[in-house]
């Protein structure tokens, strides 16, 4: 009970400070921005220190799925306090909205150079839940592509559900069930037809095949056991799955760009899931 009281008090204090520091009222700001805009503002505040952005989070209901962060606004505040002063950098490359969800793809300096996907769920215009997948920033892959470069513009908004269904089918058929004979239904041959941003894989089906062959030689298995959710906006679709990589329990975040009913570009982050004794909240990595 004491812990909850302290958390609530901290959240209230932060919100009061936010209201005092902003020339526009919290209520006016909350109404004027889209949910996508609010999520972007909250992430940018990690670098800028904009206290007003915390007003987009529901102080009484904020469920955290980053297992290294304590639940609620208090956990978020403690994380920011632990950052070395002036070290945080946030460069959001992509932001998408699907119903009550907003997901972003960001180039970070966050306890060191990182790349991350963040996912927020909204209720009544306020953020009530957060998931993410983070990885260390790496050198360009064999095709010279980075974890974050490439197209950012959303098109084909009218095809969102169709594109989500395509990715869901791909994840189930290829990644979960391993029916690689069906790859041609999803990806055209030719390196230029499938641009790859995974740090260790080159473009095209050839690059994917070579990477899988090399992993097999080293006894490394990549196993998708369950797809938890597929979200999208237009030609960009994010799949969040669970499985193992090299025998380690992991979370797979795969972002695809779709063009003419084919997968033409792929970004991903694979993050190890810590053992439960190391969790700072009890919400789990998924919970959709």
Major β-sheet profile: 5 strands, mixed
% residues in beta strands: 25-35%
Please state the CA-atom Rg, rounded to the nearest Å: 20 Å
Give the number of DSSP strands: 10
Secondary-structure element string: HHHEHEEEEHEHEEEE
Shape: globular
Helix content: 25-40%
- CATH domain class name of the largest domain: Alpha Beta
Count of discrete structural domains = 2
CATH topology-level name of the largest domain? Nuclear Transport Factor 2, Chain: A
Which spans have pLDDT < 50 for at least 5 consecutive residues? Answer: 1-26
Counting copies of identical and different chains, the oligomeric state is single chain
CATH architecture of the largest domain: Roll
SSE-based structural type: alpha+beta
Enumerate the strands of the largest sheet in spatial order, edge to edge or round the barrel: 1-5-4-3-2
Q: Can you walk through the features of this model?
A:
It comes from Shewanella sediminis (strain HAW-EB3). This protein is of the alpha+beta class. The chain has two domains: about 1-135, Roll (Nuclear Transport Factor 2, Chain: A), CATH 3.10.450.50; about 155-270, Nuclear Transport Factor 2, Chain: A (Roll), CATH 3.10.450.50. It is built from six helices and ten strands. The chain has a five-stranded mixed β-sheet, with helices on one face. It has a five-stranded mixed β-sheet with strand order 6-10-9-8-7, covered by helices on one side. A hairpin with a 2-residue loop joins strand 9 and strand 10 (about 260-270). Helix 1 packs across helix 4 (about 70-80).
